[in-house]
Structures are given as C-alpha cells and as structure tokens.
Amino acid sequence: MEEEHLVHPIPPLYDGNSRILILGSFPSRASRAAAFFYGHPRNRFWPLIARIVGEEPPASTEEKRSLALRHGIALWDTVASCDIRGSADASITGAAVNDIGVILKAAPIKAIFTNGATSTKLYERYIYPVTGIPSVPLPSTSPANAACGMDALYEKWKVIADLI
C-alpha cells in the first residue's frame, strides 16, 4: 500500500456543554469516507460509549453526533496532517498536530482522554507541552486492537462515566 499525505478532513465535534474531550489519532479510511469519527463498522467506540451511558448503540452519523453531545463528549484527533499507509497508526510519519485550544476555549473541558497508544504518544509529545493538561490514556477501540475485548475495554473506559 502506498503512503499518502493526508489532511484531517473531519471538523472537531463539541459544543458549549462538552465536559470531556476524547482524542483519537487520525481518521481511518472508513471514517474519512463516512466523514465522521469511528466510522469503521468493527470499531468498538460507539457501542462502548453507548454501553457506558446506558443507551442503544447509535447507527447513523446524526445519532452518533447527538449521543456524544448529549453526554458532554467532544471528539477530535491529535493529528492534523500526516503521511500514512491506509489506516495504520503505526505507519504515521511527519505528523502535524491539531490545535485543541479551539475546543478548550469554547467548552468547559474537565478531562482529556486519548484513544490508543499513537494518540497518547503524540499528545504527550506535542500537545501537552502547550496545554499543560495531562491526558488519560485509554486502550484503542480499533479493530486492530484485537487483544483487548469489549469487556476489557469497558473496564478501562468506564472511568469517563463520572465526568459525563
């Protein structure tokens, strides 16, 4: 698969009631095609968030958007542009990061969570020095993280329940 230079195509999701910010790394091919976060049908993000808030998993983009905003969840990614092969985080090079300050100025964010090792690494290296806000690293919801089942993800991710 050939490496491509890509610019993040999805705007951040937040409003004036967002209390937590969840940062992924960079949208997968499926997410880029859907023009929304966690668009791969096997990504466990939406079923996991629905389980945490006690709702049915959303199906449409509008249901996903509504679920997140209803529960004070802001979404974006650490990477603004990069060179990448397909959807593989491990292939990301030349990353430029997003300015999450736009969200922090507009919403009362109480905590920042990073979804997966790549997001955590890039946040700690490039964004934390600017914001001074530590992130809480969480295991990736990607289907590539097959070693971590849904119940194990839930046990780690339920830490967000007290903040939403």
Description:
- The protein is of the alpha/beta class and 164 residues long.
- The protein has a single domain (3-163), classed as 3-Layer(aba) Sandwich (Uracil-DNA Glycosylase, subunit E).
- Helix content is 33%, strand content 22%.
- It contains six helices and seven strands.
- The strands form two sheets. A four-stranded parallel sheet has the order 3-2-6-7. A three-stranded antiparallel sheet has the order 1-4-5, with helices on one face.
- A hairpin with a 7-residue loop joins strand 4 (79-85) and strand 5 (93-97).
- The longest helix has 15 residues, at 117-131.
- The chain starts with a strand and ends in a 7-residue tail after the last helix.
- The model has no long low-confidence stretch (mean pLDDT 94).
- The number of distinct helices, counting runs of at least 4 residues, comes to 6
CATH class: Alpha Beta
Shape: globular
What's the CATH architecture?
Answer: 3-Layer(aba) Sandwich
Rg calc? 15 Å
Total domains: 1
Classify the beta-strand content into a percent band. Answer: 15-25%
Helix and strand element order: EEHHHEEEHEHEH
**Strand order in the sheet with the most strands:** 3-2-6-7
Helical residues, percent: 25-40%
Low-confidence segments, ≥5 residues, pLDDT <50? none
- Report the structural category: alpha/beta
Assign the CATH topology.
Uracil-DNA Glycosylase, subunit E
Most strands sheet? 4 strands, parallel
Let me know the CATH homologous superfamily.
Uracil-DNA glycosylase-like domain
| Distance linking N and C termini | 40 Å
Round the mean pLDDT to the nearest integer and report it: 94
- Give the number of DSSP strands: 7
